[in-house]
Specification:
By secondary structure, the protein is an all-beta fold. The protein is 0% helix and 55% strand. It has a single domain, classed as OB fold (Dihydrolipoamide Acetyltransferase, E2P) (Beta Barrel), CATH 2.40.50. It comes from Nitratireductor arenosus.
Amino acid sequence: MPKRILQGTVVSDKNDKTVVVKVERRFTHPVMKKTVRTSKNYKAHDEANSFKVGDTVLIQESRPISKDKRWVVVTEAQAE
C-alpha cells in the first residue's frame, strides 16, 4: 500500500527535529453545497532542523516515531 503524501505549511519549528505542519483541505458540504475549508496540524520529523516557519513542505506517512509523530518531511514543495 502506498504511503500518503500531503502538502502543507510549517507553523512551528520550536521542537528539536520536529516541525508542525498545517494541512488544509477543501470539500463541498453535503447539505449546503458550499465549499468548506478545514485544516489539521501534523507533527512531522525533520532530522536536519532545516525547515522554518512559513515554508511549504511535503510530508509522508511513516512508522510511529514518537507518541504523536507519524509523518516525515520529504521535501520543500515547489512554488507553482
